[in-house]
Design a protein that fits this description.
2 domains, Adenine-n6-DNA-methyltransferase TaqI, Chain A, domain 2, three-stranded mixed beta sheet, alpha+beta, 7 helices, about 260 residues, about 40% helix
Length: about 260
């Protein structure tokens, strides 16, 4: 029995490592598209970014997008005409997806709707909270319409690059490092101003390359997602088998005297 239990523990640890490694996978140069791997050899050094292909532009976010700040709660609307509209909070904006199971509503003046209304293609970014929430976000596709956003969620509206590309850039390690170094920090909490967000250096390859990188990452991350799902299923089955083995042994259903 001990040997079986140890074997199951080993299998469980192995599957946990698969899931953990998936979140920090670093692709080797051989896994990159041919044109990208080649251009790295003739790159140029850029502050915050390291080496990038020499034909890529690097622009401040404020030159390729606008940043819309959200509405603050707690305004006194007593005696005023208001409408009730859905609004997004930090809890709704997760890293790489939106959690819309619980979307709250807020009363605002009718004239404020256009000021705070989200538009399809907005890149939502959290202004602060726990360190792991800073700058995280996803692309808005009008899943709820009309919908506005709280002041702790920025709506970044690209005009010179695609929303999908900007969303990828803001999720990179260098962008997260930038947000952390520009944020105001207290114990386990951080926040960043819209002014500092607008200064983020954004890598801007030619449109054709943007599309190729997006397609490549969609394909590769889909494989990672499938592996993660498979590993999680294996973990659940192994944990169930382990519990059943222990239960059977301690209730006398397995004769362990000759094991």
């Amino acid at each position: 029995m001990q040997e079986s239990s140890n074997h199951l523990d080993s299998r469980l640890r192995g599957n946990d490592e698969v899931v953990m490694k998936d979140s920090g996978t670093c692709l080797p140069q051989s896994a990159l598209p041919d044109w990208q791997a080649g251009d790295r050899q003739d790159g140029r050094q850029v502050e915050w970014l390291g080496e990038v292909p020499k034909h890529w532009d690097v622009k401040r976010l404020k030159f390729v997008a606008t940043v819309q700040t959200g509405i603050a709660k707690g305004k006194d609307n007593a005696g005023k005409s208001t409408i009730s509209v859905p609004y997004l909070r930090v809890a709704n904006v997760q890293d790489g997806y939106l959690d819309l199971e619980d979307v709250a509503t807020i009363d605002i003046a009718p004239a404020s709707l256009d000021r705070y209304r989200l538009q399809s293609g907005d890149v939502l970014m959290n202004e602060g909270g726990d360190f792991d929430k800073l700058g995280r976000g996803h692309v808005w596709h009008c899943e709820v319409d009309p919908c506005i956003h709280q002041n702790h969620v920025f709506a970044v509206r690209p005009h010179s690059i695609s929303s999908e590309w900007l969303n990828l850039v803001t999720g990179t390690n260098y962008a997260q490092f930038y947000f952390m170094t520009r944020s105001k920090q207290s114990t386990n909490l951080a926040s960043i101003s819209s002014t500092n967000v607008m200064e983020l250096p954004v890598v801007c390859p030619p449109l054709e390359e943007q599309q190729a990188i997006i397609a490549f990452l969609d394909s590769e991350t889909a494989k990672f997602d499938a592996l993660t799902l498979e590993a999680n299923r294996a973990i659940a089955l192994l944990q169930e088998h382990r519990s059943a083995l222990i239960s059977a042994a301690v209730t006398g259903k397995i004769d362990v005297r000759e094991q």
